[in-house]
């Protein structure tokens, strides 16, 4: 057996034969003679074929975020500037595959230089290039294998078009050589309930068909396990899935302390199964790929669909989280040297105030037409003054419960002052990690710094929770860390009042909380805070959980069977 280590990205244990993602098409030598008219036609036919395929995948995607990214790829493919640039390259002597490759290489360099959201889209451009080249060459689209039986998928990384159609019953687990814990692949794996490990060096050296086990919590991958191990790991996983399917009710510790378990959604279609409410309603889907802002009535209809599905339950709406690092054409914001640190989130209102006021008016109108308990929060808030101004705007539009997201360390450090002006806080641990450690979320080389078990991040979470207790106001967590069953105990012990995550993650967190008392959670939080490293924090919590009688819980929370 050979043990490999990566970063646990989606909790769960899985084992089976591995198969790798189909490789991209090899670019052939440049044709000696080129018929420009024929090559230009080939480019257009490739664009039509790829756009049709991506649109089909978007329409059938199980995840709204994946569908959103696929539709963005369609927009990229159909962009006239891309086609015109390819025509120019062909006029210069290139054939269709080389023209497409050269043009998208230029776009790729520009995206990387821009940083932030655009840098995150580099893999989307690479995938688009490979699909267009394959179409030009008459080759099959690169993508997910189908060996006819369940398996573990391994790849350098996965593009949205690959992940959009993943079937949890067929793909038992994912292991990638690149990526990070907040990458699209990791987020979608958690959404689908597929165990995943990212940034696993050496995984591409494992041959197709080899038996491998993975632990999506610890990041341990073992190649060369026995068939008995495969059967044991998967039997344990199925038993756990069946047990969690029977899990219902509100989140609470073993002694009855409530910790609300809420869902992260992008639209009404993401509401699957039983949920206590919504802790993060991302409203960006309504704004993407548009040359003008959605109208008041259009927004009211979209928000009302979600509110009507949750009568009497809490729905926390995040106002538009976009800007220079998540560009929307209709905003017409100026280019910035460092977009991730520029005009984004609530800061957009400084330059385009009507975008926020129209959205608040639409949210208020939709809320008035339903029985949902609608809360509103702003992203990218840095100061108490910004929080106060946002809360005042919410109340002007008849929205009584206003809060802010804590993603900027300055806001976390002044959480008490922020809470003087708003009704609640919601910590977005993905961005808070990014800004605390000066580590881009999409930079795989820095993925270890984005580990939610980093003691410095836990200290900021503790500061927010303590401020909430002192003010008598709720503080939730809506970042991906909330979906980790063990980390949920740390959060509960710190005083966090609600956890929001992909709906599929809720049962595991519910069962984890139910296995421990509030006092045990507090001791677990103290141990994590005192640890010198993420690894030490995880280990300390695991030891405490066993001492509290947690002996057989979850082969997906760090228990590894090596055959």
Automatic annotation (TrEMBL):
Residues 152-219 form the PEP-utilising enzyme mobile domain. Mg(2+) binds at residues 407, 431. Belongs to the PEP-utilizing enzyme family. Residues 248-515 form the PEP-utilising enzyme C-terminal domain. This is Phosphoenolpyruvate-protein phosphotransferase. Coiled coil: none annotated. Residues 5-121 form the Phosphotransferase system enzyme I N-terminal domain. Signal peptide: none annotated. GO terms for biological process: phosphoenolpyruvate-dependent sugar phosphotransferase system. It is found in: Cytoplasm. The keyword Transport applies. The keyword Membrane does not apply. It holds the Pfam family PEP-utilisers_N. Gene3D superfamilies: Phosphoenolpyruvate-binding domains (3.20.20.60), Phosphohistidine domain (3.50.30.10), PtsI, HPr-binding domain (1.10.274.10). Transmembrane segments: none annotated. The active site is at residues 184, 478. Phosphoenolpyruvate binds at residues 282, 318, 430-431, 441. Its main location: cytoplasm. Keywords: Cytoplasm, Kinase, Magnesium, Metal-binding, Phosphotransferase system, Sugar transport, Transferase, Transport. It catalyses: L-histidyl-[protein] + phosphoenolpyruvate = N(pros)-phospho-L-histidyl-[protein] + pyruvate. GO terms for molecular function: kinase activity; metal ion binding; phosphoenolpyruvate-protein phosphotransferase activity. General (non sugar-specific) component of the phosphoenolpyruvate-dependent sugar phosphotransferase system (sugar PTS). This major carbohydrate active-transport system catalyzes the phosphorylation of incoming sugar substrates concomitantly with their translocation across the cell membrane. Enzyme I transfers the phosphoryl group from phosphoenolpyruvate (PEP) to the phosphoryl carrier protein (HPr). It is an enzyme of class 2 (transferase). InterPro entries: PEP-util_enz_mobile_dom, PEP-utilizing_PTS_enzyme, PEP_util_AS, PEP_util_C, PEP_util_CS, Phosphohistidine_dom_sf, PTS_EI, PTS_EI-like.
């Amino acid at each position: 057996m050979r043990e490999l280590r990566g970063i646990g990205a989606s909790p769960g244990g899985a084992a089976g034969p591995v198969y790798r993602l189909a490789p991209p098409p090899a670019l052939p030598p440049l044709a000696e003679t080129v018929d420009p008219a024929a090559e230009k036609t080939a480019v257009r036919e490739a664009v039509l074929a790829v756009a049709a395929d991506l649109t089909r995948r978007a329409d059938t995607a199980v995840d709204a975020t994946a569908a959103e990214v696929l539709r963005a790829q369609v927009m990229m493919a159909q962009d006239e500037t891309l086609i015109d640039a390819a025509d120019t390259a062909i006029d210069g002597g290139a054939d269709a595959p080389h023209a497409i490759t050269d043009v998208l290489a230029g776009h790729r360099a520009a995206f990387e230089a821009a940083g932030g959201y655009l840098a995150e889209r580099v893999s989307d451009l690479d995938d688009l290039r490979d699909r267009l080249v394959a179409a030009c060459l008459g080759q099959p689209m690169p993508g997910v294998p189908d060996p006819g039986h369940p398996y573990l998928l391994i790849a350098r990384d996965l593009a949205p078009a690959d992940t959009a159609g993943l079937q949890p019953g067929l793909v038992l687990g994912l292991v990638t050589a690149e990526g990070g814990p907040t990458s699209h692949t990791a987020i979608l794996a958690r959404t689908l309930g597929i165990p995943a490990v990212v940034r696993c060096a050496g995984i591409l050296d494992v041959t197709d068909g080899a038996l491998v086990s993975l632990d999506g919590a610890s990041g341990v991958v073992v190649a060369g396990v026995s068939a008995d191990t495969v059967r044991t790991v998967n039997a344990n996983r199925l038993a756990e899935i069946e047990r969690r399917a029977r899990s219902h009710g509100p989140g609470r510790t073993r002694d009855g302390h409530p910790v609300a378990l809420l869902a992260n959604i992008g639209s009404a279609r993401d509401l699957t199964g039983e949920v206590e409410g919504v802790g993060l309603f991302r409203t960006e889907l309504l704004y993407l790929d548009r040359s003008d802002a959605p109208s008041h009535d259009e927004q009211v209809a979209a928000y009302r669909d979600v509110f009507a599905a949750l009568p009497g339950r809490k729905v926390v709406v995040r106002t538009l989280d976009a800007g220079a690092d998540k560009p929307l054409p209709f905003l017409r914001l100026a280019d910035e040297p460092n977009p991730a640190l520029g005009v984004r989130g609530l800061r957009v209102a400084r330059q385009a105030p009507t975008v926020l006021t129209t959205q608040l008016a639409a949210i208020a109108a939709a809320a008035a037409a339903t029985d949902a308990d609608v809360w509103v929060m702003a992203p990218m808030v840095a100061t108490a003054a910004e929080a106060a101004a946002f809360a005042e705007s919410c109340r002007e539009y008849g929205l009584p419960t206003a809060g802010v997201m804590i993603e900027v360390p300055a806001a976390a450090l002044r959480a008490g002052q922020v809470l003087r002006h708003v009704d609640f806080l919601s910590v977005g641990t993905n961005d808070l990690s990014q800004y605390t450690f000066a580590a881009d979320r999409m930079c795989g080389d820095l993925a270890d710094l984005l580990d939610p078990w980093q003691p410095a991040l836990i200290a900021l979470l503790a500061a927010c929770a303590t401020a909430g207790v002192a003010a008598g106001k709720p503080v939730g967590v809506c970042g991906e860390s909330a979906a980790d069953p063990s980390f949920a105990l740390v959060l509960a012990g710190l005083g966090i009042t609600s956890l929001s995550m992909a709906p599929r993650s809720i049962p595991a967190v519910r069962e984890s909380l139910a296995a421990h008392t509030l006092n045990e959670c507090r001791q677990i939080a103290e141990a994590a805070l005192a640890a010198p490293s993420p690894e030490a924090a995880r280990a300390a919590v695991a030891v405490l959980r066993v001492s509290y009688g947690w002996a057989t819980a979850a082969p997906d929370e760090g228990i590894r069977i090596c055959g």
